[in-house]
Write a structure and sequence with these properties.
By secondary structure, this protein is mostly helical. The chain folds into three domains: 143 residues, Up-down Bundle (Four Helix Bundle (Hemerythrin (Met), subunit A)), CATH 1.20.120; 133 residues, no CATH class; 153 residues. It has 15 helices and no strands. It is globular, with a radius of gyration of 22 Å.
């Protein structure tokens, strides 16, 4: 395979880009396709779980569909069935584009994708059968996690080989986030499973390690991968360079510095050393720095070109995702304050923040990346304009319903639980309407995912070439999007 070390990222010819894209087609489409399959399945389980919260008798007597099992399976399937394969697929394409090299070792990556899905199938089946660890984001039984780790190590080896083939050109901000995320995940996953699943440490240390992993999964894995896609695709799609190199540096290094320390805020009042709780609160508040640095930088990049967001699917999904990431970090900082956390700790507010991070931020950002990348791999555009618009609005309205209702209901629930004259049953009655609306939101999310999966199948089966792009609205006549890149 040839490489292009002498060609800068901004001067790659159309033919060079086409060769790079063609070389990544098989592995990337495999990871994207499997991610969308698991997304639909996971959201089906999530919808069933949300219905069971408001109708406890629903599916009563079916052991593998009890609330505890399907909610753990749904979260696990999102994390390792959708989010991680989608991040890997986007990472493969981004790494090849940014390093300006064609993809080598196709069989290695295809094998990694097959092994990953096999390991997840075994693990998800184990959870539904009752064989779960019940740890946050680590519910997979111990016999399935080595399979996932082996699969990911194949991807990590490829990433390192690709990085060393990149030549002497300077690193771009998207590469910082990309390779940081790709290297952080195996460290987080291997360390947490070693200490909690394969060879568990003493019980008092387990909550701190479990929440350390959960915080790192969002802040050091999903956030860098979403930011990498945003910092590459938004400048490309809008035709504008990244606004500020100084904000790049500030956002990246503060995210790396504080991202792994936020978990302590989830342990306020728990049997852990006070310094862990204090460090978690401080880190959660300091996460406002990367939130504003990344958010402001991308806002300045799009400044004066927001009309493009109105019709470009990739830009609209990515902009919405980054906005949700900003909101997540701000709300998480507020919720971590001891005076606030003492009231909200056992309410639905934690669930609202999880949905905002998973479905508001990463699912939106990954969808934007898929909308941008897949046409460049297949050689033709998405088959249905209306389907793309329906996907966005169903997902946006669904996430909005869930987050707003769980936040509002969570506040009512929190104050009811802290009021000694209110019975526990009354606190549940207060939040029933809000949980009902959140169930409606999950139904909308499921419909959006099913629609997206059909669109993906359609573009793979479509034999038409050079079809018109599937814009969300009428494209502005003076738009500057460089469609060919």
């Amino acid at each position: 395979m040839s490489a292009f070390p002498s060609i800068s990222a901004n001067t790659l010819s159309t033919a060079d880009r086409a060769r790079i894209d063609a070389s990544t087609r098989g592995p990337v489409l495999l990871f994207f396709g499997s991610a969308l399959f698991w997304l639909v399945f996971g959201l089906a389980l999530e919808t069933l779980a949300s219905v069971q919260l408001i109708l406890p008798w629903f599916l009563e007597g079916i052991s593998f569909l009890t609330y505890g099992r399907i909610t753990q399976a749904a979260t696990t399937i999102f994390a390792y069935g959708f989010a991680t394969p989608a991040a890997i697929g986007a990472g493969i394409w981004l790494a090849s584009r940014l390093c300006r090299v064609e993809l080598d070792h196709h069989k290695l990556l295809v094998s990694a994708g097959i092994v990953w899905n096999l390991g997840l199938l075994i693990g998800a089946s184990g959870i539904l059968s009752g064989d779960s660890t019940s740890l946050p984001l680590l519910c997979l039984p111990g016999y399935s996690t080595p399979i996932l780790l082996l699969s990911y190590l194949l991807v990590a080896i490829w990433a390192l080989l690709t990085f060393f083939r990149r030549g002497d050109s300077p690193l771009f901000v998207a590469e910082w986030f990309l390779f940081a995320g790709l290297l952080a995940f195996p460290w987080l996953f291997a360390a947490a499973n070693t200490l909690l699943v394969w060879n568990p440490v003493n019980a008092p240390a387990q909550p701190a390690i479990a929440y350390w992993f959960a915080g790192g999964f969002v802040n050091l894995w999903l956030a860098p991968m979403g930011a990498a896609a945003a910092f590459y695709i938004i400048p490309k799609a809008s035709g504008q360079p990244v606004a500020s190199h100084h904000l790049d540096l500030l956002g990246f290094w503060t995210l790396m510095l504080f991202g792994s320390w936020t978990a302590g805020a989830s342990l306020i009042g728990g049997p852990v050393p006070a310094w862990i709780q204090s460090a978690g609160v401080a880190a959660s508040v300091m996460m406002l720095v990367p939130a504003f640095a990344i958010g402001v930088n991308l806002h300045l990049t799009l400044s004066g070109h927001y009309a493009t967001v109105g019709w470009s699917p990739a830009l609209r999904f990515l902009a919405t995702g980054i906005g949700c990431l900003f909101a997540y970090w701000v709300l998480n900082a507020i919720n971590s304050l001891p005076a606030v956390n003492a009231v909200t700790h056992f309410s639905d507010i934690g669930r609202a923040l999880t949905v905002l991070a998973f479905y508001g931020f990463f699912a939106m950002a990954a969808s934007g990346a898929i909308y941008y990348i897949v046409p460049r791999l297949t050689g033709h555009e998405w088959p249905c304009h209306g389907g793309v618009a329906w996907h966005y609005w169903l997902a946006a309205v669904g996430v909005g319903l869930i987050v707003i209702d769980l936040l509002t209901g969570g506040l009512i629930q929190a104050y009811a639980l802290t009021n000694p004259i209110v019975e526990f049953r009354s606190a549940l009655d207060f939040i029933w309407p809000f949980r009902f609306m959140s169930a409606v939101g999950f139904i909308l999310l499921f419909l959006s995912a099913a629609n997206f999966a059909l669109l993906f199948a359609g573009i793979l089966l479509d034999t038409r070439k050079n079809a018109a792009p599937a814009y969300l609205a009428v494209r502005e006549a003076d738009s500057t999007e460089p469609v060919a890149v």
